[in-house]
């Protein structure tokens, strides 16, 4: 029996945090972010972890966080943009519940992510390098149960689409 979480995946700037929080409120569920679990556990911000210990260390912390997620059920979980992008990670996430990929046009995702800032994976990378990173991650995100195209949509509209896709997926299962 799956633990019935809703797990949001997608590239930086997809709106996983904002939409996840809104979705959780609509459904009366708890909301958790893997990045927050990492900073709470480590005591440093994500950029500080990258700066002081490197991306490798951050990815180890991410793996530990996935283990901790096994204890959760009935929650909305927003993951970091790189969380699903290792061999076997999508299987781990799919075992936690329904995985939803918030996709969109890269230009829009990038603009949103840059506006909010604090993204070590974007720092010092050219647009071509970011496009390559996005391209290399799509096969992982693509293993989600549900994909929602967020292009041109506000958070409310994205959440409405997610809710409707979840309803359809549920109806198909019963
Ligand atoms: C990362 C995305 C970030 C955060 C970290 C690494 C990535 O989360 O986990 O900076 O590798 O794409 P958001 O997707 O919420 O920006």
Could you characterize what this model shows?
By secondary structure, this protein is of the alpha/beta class. It has a single domain (5-168), classed as P-loop containing nucleotide triphosphate hydrolases (Rossmann fold), CATH 3.40.50.300. Helices cover 55% and strands 13% of the residues. It is built from seven helices and five strands; from the N terminus they run βαβααβαβααβα. A five-stranded parallel β-sheet has the order 2-3-1-4-5. The chain is globular and about 50 Å long. The two termini are 14 Å apart. 32% of the residues are buried. The structure holds shikimate-3-phosphate.
Shape: globular
CATH superfamily: P-loop containing nucleotide triphosphate hydrolases
- Number of separate helices: 7
Uncertain spans: none
> Approximately how much helix is present in the residues?
55-70%
Second CATH tier, the architecture: 3-Layer(aba) Sandwich
The structural domain count equals 1
**How large is the radius of gyration?**
15 Å
CATH fold group: Rossmann fold
Bound molecules: shikimate-3-phosphate
- CATH top level? Alpha Beta
Distance between the termini: 14 Å
Q: Determine the strand fraction and express it as a percent band.
A: 5-15%
Strand order of the largest sheet: 2-3-1-4-5
Order of helices and strands: EHEHHEHEHHEH
Quantity of strands, as a count: 5
What structural class do the secondary elements suggest?
Answer: alpha/beta
Largest sheet: 5 strands, parallel
Oligomer: single chain
Let me know the average pLDDT.
Answer: 95
């Amino acid at each position: 029996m799956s633990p019935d979480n809703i797990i949001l995946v997608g590239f930086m700037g997809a709106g996983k945090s904002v939409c996840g929080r809104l979705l959780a409120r609509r459904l009366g569920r708890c909301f958790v972010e893997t990045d927050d679990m990492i900073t709470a556990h480590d005591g440093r911000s994500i950029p500080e972890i990258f700066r002081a210990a490197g991306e490798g260390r951050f990815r180890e912390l991410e793996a530990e966080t996935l283990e901790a997620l096994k204890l959760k059920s009935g929650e909305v979980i927003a993951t970091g943009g790189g969380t699903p992008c290792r061999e076997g990670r999508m299987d781990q996430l799919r075992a936690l519940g329904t995985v939803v990929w918030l996709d969109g046009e890269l230009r829009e995702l990038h603009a949103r992510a840059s506006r909010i800032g604090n993204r070590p994976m974007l720092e010092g990378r050219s647009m071509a390098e970011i496009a390559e990173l996005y391209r290399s991650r799509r096969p992982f995100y693509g293993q989600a149960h549900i994909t929602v195209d967020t292009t041109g949509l506000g958070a409310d509209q994205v959440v409405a689409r997610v809710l409707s896709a979840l309803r359809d997926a549920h109806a198909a299962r019963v």
